[in-house]
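Morning!

This is the sequence you dropped in the shared folder:
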Amino acid sequence: MSYPQLHMIIDGEKIPVAHRRVHTVVNPASGAALGDLPLADQADLERALAAAQRGFRLWRDTPAAQRAAVLTGAARLLRERQEEIARIATLEEGKPLAEARIEVMMNVNLFEFYAGECQRFYGRELVRPPGMRSTVVCEPVGPVAAFAPWNFPIGNPGRKLGAPVAAGCSVILKAAEEAPGSALAVLQCLLDAGLPQEVGQAVFGVPDEVSRHLLASPIIRKLSFTGSTAVGKHLMKLAAEDCKRTTMELGGHAPVLVFDDVDVEQVLKVMVPSKHRNAGQVCVSPTRFIVQEGIYRRFRDGFVEHAARLRVGNGLDESVQMGPMANPRRPEAMERLIGGAVRAGAKLHTGGRRLGEQGYYYAPTVLSEVPQSAPIMNEEPFGPVALINPFRTEEEMIAEANRLPYGLAAFSWTGDCGRQRRLAREVESGMLCINTTALGGSDAPFGGVKWSGHGSENGPEGVMACLVVKAVHEG
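The structure's back. Tokens below.
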């Protein structure tokens, strides 16, 4: 399969390169160019805003059953096009095909769930004296500006599009320029399923130009962003100028608390593949392994052994377990952070180097006894590196888990039921996994606390984030 011709989608029209600036999309497995992506100018953005304004007036009054039918139809088309869309994602982002196929199905499940939620925007009637009536109703917030990153090029656009469509909002999606083909394919499924052309737009461009232009417009009433904490803080400031609602899913640095009452080998069988999913380029990737002293050496040595056996290569090869990193910035970041940790005194057990002469491959890496002051212990590495340190007591382990200002996801492994309840209460994160890594799900809210953002995607909460509550009092 060849890589598709790239375009923007504005008011139902596929906008080509023509006279516009371009971004060249690169295959991270080889470094070869895949195609040129047109970048929006101000006229393009104004046209998208005007279409979104018309689309909102149309879609907010569309019956729930019709909105549900579009989402259900898009889910069916995603199933039918699963292999095609998965291959596009692997070509432009690098992840193994098996992971890309799962990502398509994440959208299928989410769209089907949101189709059901269309029927469940319940209000309520308040108890009032005779002659008085008070009701509480939910209404769509308005046109949404949605910004999606490159690491889940299918799933992130699905989240950004699905909730506004279910709620009755229009949406302008700016997905990552590094991986645009997947996002376009997801939006096309919605359009082919009957989404009015004014309701869903896809633009690309210089990120700061696009965000400033869209967020300066009074047409946009909500910002939805997934990405780094630094960029998220910048966008929140722009959104605050017009009091726009925000849903922010920002950076993480997930701790993994491993206590000495577990089956070490079983934990390793689950956690090593989870750490290296998408080459560690996952906001909820388990990274800081906080291991109790009694099993520390066994856990560390076993992790090294499992990680060193991982097969790294082109994601189109079905036997590959980890693909390349998505862009040249990521291996450079790995070299800086891992090199800094080693210079600070950390022990390097495996990895710590680039692989091959082409593409952006980096070896699975394990560091131990990493000083707390090393940048990699405080800055999200977003790559295939595990940091393993020993701790003595439960209290020390929880303190380390909560030490950073991030609070997106956390993991723990213990057979002690009392400890499980204590961890659920005391670990500061938007999502906590105990004896599992299955933290996602179409019906489960996905979001963080502290510097990891606010608001949730997925679940009923994802749709409610696109609704406003109105109290109506009648005398």
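Headline: Residues 255 and 288 are 5 Å apart (CA to CA).

More detail when I'm at my desk.
O.
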